Amino acid sequence: MAFKAPSMLGPKFPWLLWAYACCCSISFCGRVVVWPTDASHWINVKVLLQELVLRGHEVTVLVPSSNLLINYQDTSSPFTFEVLQVPFSQETLDASMEDFLNFWMNEASNLFPWEIMWTMKEQLEVFTNMSKQTCDTLVMNSHLIAKLQQAKFDVLIADPLSVGGELVAEILEIPFIYSFRFSDGNVVERLCGGLPSPPSYVPASTMGLTHQMSFMERLQNFLFYIFTDLFFVKFWRDEWDGYYSNVLGKAAEILQRQLATSEIWLIRTYWDFEFPRPFLPNFEFVGGLHCQPAKPLPKVSQLHSAIGCSGEHGIIVFTLGSMVYNLSDEKSNVIAKALSQLPQKVLWRYKGKKPETLGSNTKIYDWIPQNDLLGHPLTKAFITHGGTNGLYEAIYHGIPMVGIPMFADQHDNIAHMVAKGAAVQVDFNTMKTQDLADALNTVIYNSTYKENALKLSKIQHDQPVKPLDRAVFWIEFVMRHKGAKHLRPAAHHLTWYQYHSLDVLAFLFTCTATIVFILFKCSASGNYTDCLGANGRLES
Amino acid sequence: MAFKAPSMLGPKFPWLLWAYACCCSISFCGRVVVWPTDASHWINVKVLLQELVLRGHEVTVLVPSSNLLINYQDTSSPFTFEVLQVPFSQETLDASMEDFLNFWMNEASNLFPWEIMWTMKEQLEVFTNMSKQTCDTLVMNSHLIAKLQQAKFDVLIADPLSVGGELVAEILEIPFIYSFRFSDGNVVERLCGGLPSPPSYVPASTMGLTHQMSFMERLQNFLFYIFTDLFFVKFWRDEWDGYYSNVLGKAAEILQRQLATSEIWLIRTYWDFEFPRPFLPNFEFVGGLHCQPAKPLPKVSQLHSAIGCSGEHGIIVFTLGSMVYNLSDEKSNVIAKALSQLPQKVLWRYKGKKPETLGSNTKIYDWIPQNDLLGHPLTKAFITHGGTNGLYEAIYHGIPMVGIPMFADQHDNIAHMVAKGAAVQVDFNTMKTQDLADALNTVIYNSTYKENALKLSKIQHDQPVKPLDRAVFWIEFVMRHKGAKHLRPAAHHLTWYQYHSLDVLAFLFTCTATIVFILFKCSASGNYTDCLGANGRLES
């Protein structure tokens, strides 16, 4: 492996950057191993890994034999796949995901909070068991470990929500980097990453709050921080600590400490999307790294024809993401009816049963080139479930949105876009035909939504280095320097009460209380000198 | 003025960056106005302003007729100077600075803390009065204000320690940016900038502590935070609030609020120097922006000859900065004697009386090309007072240091370098000949110091965009977008007790106390049902 530190590049010496870029594929050749992250997370990480391959690095992905979106049988893939033969079948995994989606789309809204929490705990157990089984296939396979050690990887890339990456990095004795979107209440970022998050203006993720909160919202946010901390400790950290301790032969709190040793946290958002908040030097916000200019649509395609006859009204792009395949008849008819009332052509990615109320202006497709459509000059609006990937493509191209969030970070994502004036939210569970039609008319015909979407787009485009290049830079930095310890805060060496200076406060309180007590005793006995004995010492 | 948003540039499309850079001087032409910052601050900011001029911007510097280092009579300067005719003379300013230096170099170490504090307060009053007189020359000159308004500046650059910039920006109705190194205890950054600083691992500036503190150090740090907060409010904020209120006709706390509206804080340090700590998205760490590769020394110069005969032992570069011109005879002789014991050639920048103990290996110069000497391959060590500018040149070139800090941030700066293993500190007041000789021998002959200095150098050089380009980027960003509001945290809209969630805690405490009180009352009356009246309502 031959590394060459990049020169300090800038607009003043563009030829240096040019020469450096030309040399990249020759002089850089690192070995990257990836702990699997699935579903929409994989869609994002894949773009980063493809870029690493383009720059001359070797990428090996550890992939469970049963998974959602990682096609390890694709012979044209630029990655080397190391398949982990997990004991659960593809059907079991699909059924678990179906249950998960069904609960959040159809059941959760009718339940009490404690019922939701209980189901969350049960769902977490299901996925935790699968994660442990995935880990087992590696940590109990000494042959595979030896093979991976011999490969002499330079860095491991993981997602903290897909537990195990930090364990593998420890076993292989290599530094690791996280690619990360969010955890419930920011609890992983806060407790493991050390990310400071004042609950007064940093809304807990999944709450759908903004950075400007009323007293009641701040109270709600504060309590949710506590709730998620307890949930994390009880149902996640404690659950994994035993497993990690067994594997590594170390003491408790091992998961939290392991996660804290991530060299860099590549966060999949940026300040076009995020509310400004404190962060640490080893956190890099690379949201939009997967975005790219739209490619022209093939001239003979159905899509091209559909757009061609949209006229001055333009088109609307509609998708509920890579995980939601179908809707109830009632819901799909409500949506289709609303869409049929619009003068725009609607291009809907949907695999479910064709709704009866589908209008002539609406075309359904199994798959659409989402980024190319969002970048089309005739696109007027984007109807989205609020997944970060799609939402970033809308930001990139400056398209206003109608959000129909369902689960995970989707409520949060749409709340951000609503607060920034680039989206209108519609409630998935209570939505009526008119609600959706009104929302679409608002974002299309009230020009402030388009203006605000374009503002966000400008922020995304106007960065000193584009997100994909920044992400690659820090991965290569970690490979070059075998880590980035100079960016890791000393907070990780403190206990929680030391971090919050509670021991200092307790000491100061004790000193003050002692002084007050002595003064009180003296004043009670009438005279300060009464407190002192003949030799001037304090007497009780 | 014609702005063009830069493309998203990166190693993948170097030709884009090249094309962009080539177009810079044609398409960018902003108007920048600078509120004066003096002494070593000016040395640093001047480099940034020169770069702005090189990129086609017009730079106007508002400069007091009496100042320390801003030579507004230099006809070759690339800046336009607008001279503010201040009522204090050059002699008065020089004498005040002489008093300031004399106090910190010769008197402070023999005084009690409260005596030091009292003198600090008196010194602050002297400089505050001069600052107010400087502000007066502008805010009371409607002709000048009109002239500046007509110039239609796009951005103002200031240093928060040189108060007034934010006031001028408000009058001219333009966004402003800070270039900043530090304030006592980080108080300006914390209270005005909203920078989160947990006292458990973020050492207050000027304390000389590191990020890893014992309990007593954390206690000391915590108390210093409180002390500096009170000092700031009492002797700085309150002092300026009246002045700002008079000028702007607004309510109190005006200074703190004004400072909070800075679009970007360009901090003159980086993570090679800083201990990792939380920061905000509108803080950009651009330390080392003034550093550049060493130029070869002229072959016929005295310096070139001196270095030429240094042989294998190499040279030592020695300066106490741009403000310290001479030392007491005793001190200069202690230093000269220590230097005479070394086999290296010593190049000493010093304007004072030639010490009697000066060795033949030591040459004294009025001025030295410090950066070129530190970048010379024969340079073995740097003796420095610990000013940030010089220290960054040593980091840039990977030279180990002996620090003799005297005042301001110098103790802090050297403490950072000592903690990072690239320097040894010597106490200016108690230093003996052998102490200095030992310190120099340590950093020269114990190879870990050189290795650590080179590590810091690598961190400085290995950045995605070099500091000067990042600083220019954000200034141009603010000009392009008329601000950077999307980076400003909502913390600025909260009171201190809201920020720390104290109102939420008080509410929760009150609720808990009420419940406990009711339960206690019930249990005291023997039976819960006794607390309830016949209608089930709670009775007292």
TrEMBL record, chains A, B:
<dbReference type="GO" id="GO:0016020">
    <property type="term" value="C:membrane"/>
</dbReference>
<dbReference type="InterPro" id="IPR035595">
    <property type="entry name" value="UDP_glycos_trans_CS"/>
</dbReference>
<protein>
    <recommendedName>
        <fullName>Glucuronosyltransferase</fullName>
    </recommendedName>
</protein>
<keyword id="KW-0808">Transferase</keyword>
<dbReference type="GO" id="GO:0015020">
    <property type="term" value="F:glucuronosyltransferase activity"/>
</dbReference>
<dbReference type="InterPro" id="IPR002213">
    <property type="entry name" value="UDP_glucos_trans"/>
</dbReference>
<dbReference type="Pfam" id="PF00201">
    <property type="entry name" value="UDPGT"/>
</dbReference>
<dbReference type="InterPro" id="IPR050271">
    <property type="entry name" value="UDP-glycosyltransferase"/>
</dbReference>
<keyword id="KW-0328">Glycosyltransferase</keyword>
<comment type="similarity">
    <text>Belongs to the UDP-glycosyltransferase family.</text>
</comment>
